[in-house]
């Protein structure tokens, strides 16, 4: 089973039930999902599904706190400790190599790892646990596929709208330029006609 939770900031997080599902979640995580784990301890893999245009550095503080509290509570040893350090990084930074145990990961870029020290807040954990829902791994994978397709459609629509906006702006500027050019030509014709009339009067 895959557990999903609703946290502050109107975000969704998902967690595997054991290390075997953690292994599957590594494969189907979106590149922009953020992976959380208790540093130097065994724990569940918690993934935060970012909203479009979010980044590792723009996660709201209360959302980050909820993710860290959840992953601490899902660590057999970590949940008993007064405080722990949580490591988090984009899912695209997770690396699997031959010889690694099931659910074990490394990192492509150590500089993309961030850390947060927390102490347990039962009130926060209890609030999050009340939102728990269960899905099969197959359902989760389908949701992932549907989300990818919807995100692709959304970005394609935004691209077309931006393209149209640029074209409309270009066309508007061109029309203004032609109108300005037309005004100049009219003024020049008027000046030319006035000169002819002056010359006729002189004759």
From TrEMBL:
Residue ranges of domain NFACT RNA-binding in the record: 1-107
Q: Where is this region: Disordered?
A: 155-203
List all Basic and acidic residues biased stretches: 155-177
Q: Into which family does the record put it?
A: Belongs to the CCDC25 family.
Q: What is this protein called?
A: Coiled-coil domain containing protein, putative
**What is the organism of origin for this protein?**
Entamoeba invadens IP1
């Amino acid at each position: 089973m895959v557990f999903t939770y609703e946290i502050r900031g109107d975000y969704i997080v998902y967690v595997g039930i054991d290390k075997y599902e953690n292994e599957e979640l590594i494969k189907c995580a979106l590149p922009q999902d953020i992976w959380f784990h208790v540093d130097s301890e065994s724990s569940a893999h918690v993934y935060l599904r970012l909203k479009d245009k979010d980044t590792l550095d723009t996660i709201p503080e209360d959302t980050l706190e909820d993710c860290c509290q959840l992953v601490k509570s899902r660590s057999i040893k970590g949940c008993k400790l007064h405080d722990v350090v949580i490591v988090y990084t984009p899912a695209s930074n997770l690396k699997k190599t031959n010889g690694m145990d099931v659910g074990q990961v490394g990192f492509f870029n150590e500089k993309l790892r961030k850390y947060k020290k927390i102490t347990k807040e039962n009130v926060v954990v209890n609030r999050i646990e009340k939102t728990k829902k269960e899905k099969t791994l197959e359902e989760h994978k389908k949701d992932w596929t549907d989300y990818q397709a919807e995100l692709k459609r959304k970005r394609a629509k935004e691209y077309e709208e931006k393209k149209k906006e640029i074209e409309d702006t270009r066309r508007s500027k061109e029309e203004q330029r032609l109108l300005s050019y037309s005004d100049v030509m009219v003024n020049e014709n008027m000046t030319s006609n006035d000169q002819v009339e002056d010359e006729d009067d002189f004759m």
